[in-house]
Amino acid sequence: MRILIFGGTGPAGLLLIRHALDGGHSVVVFARSPEKLPQDISANPSVTVVEGQLTDAEAISQAMAGVHAVLSALGPPPRQGITYPGNTPLAHAYGLIIDAMKKHDVKRVILLGTASIHDEHDKFSVQFKALVAGVAIFAHNAYKDVVAIGELFKAQADDVLWTIARVPILTSDEAVDYVAGYIGDGKVRTVLSRAAFAAFVLRELESNEWCRKAPLISSP
Fold it and tell me: H-type helices in 109-158, by residue range?
């Protein structure tokens, strides 16, 4: 399968690339700064790198050509806080990505989300309530952007098979075990390794268990 990956130069994105390559897929990496890719990835014959900005519809469309699925680890930079722009840049980028998917007849997309995206299956949880409230207060523009991403896919991507893999606090643990469920179900916790996020995404690409759903993924 030929897979287009966004956010591939970040820690979670690099793991997505490596998991995809380990699974025998060919990978197109859309990157603003290709020089951030490690040599073992950029020199891999199964990897094609397309340089471009997330505001560049033409570059996104170019990268989308011949692709079977889209995986994304895009998310607000964790340390940007109050300096994060207020014009929901990631939601806008996803709008361009959806347009390119429709143009090239690409049906499948699996993307990173957070607990800030509410799902109708969620129940009350003190821990997650505090986690989301903290983000909404101290990184409000980033919170607003993530919420807009969820609204975009649920309202405007009817002909796309999307899965939003909502994550809690991401860690650098190498464990790949995870549970998938919903907030307040007694199973999911407030931490998840980036390796487990990548493992879930590649597993979901094969199983299509959570199409048009937004599960919360966490460590067991």
Answer: 126-138, 140-156
On whether the CB atoms of residues 177 and 196 are closer than 8 A, the answer is yes
CA-wise closest residue to 92 among 165, 164, 152? 152
Cα distances from 158 to residues 69, 106, 212, in angstroms, run 16, 13, 9
pLDDT tens for 90-120 read: 999 999 999 999 999 999 999 999 999 999 9
- Please give the C-alpha separations between residue 146 and each of 106, 114, 151, 203, in angstroms, as whole numbers: 23, 7, 9, 23
> What's the predicted TM-score (pTM) here?
0.96
Domains and CATH numbers, the chain: 2-218 (3.40.50.720)
Do 211 and 163 touch, CB atoms closer than 8 A? yes
Q: Shortest CA distance to 203 belongs to which of 71, 65, 31?
A: 71
Contact 194/171 with Cβ under 8 angstroms? yes
Residues facing 95 on adjacent strands: none
59, 34 Cβ separation under 8 angstroms: no
Whether 16 contacts 201, CB under 8 Å: yes
Calculate Rg over the CA atoms of the chain.
16
Helix (H) or strand (E) holding 58: helix 57-64
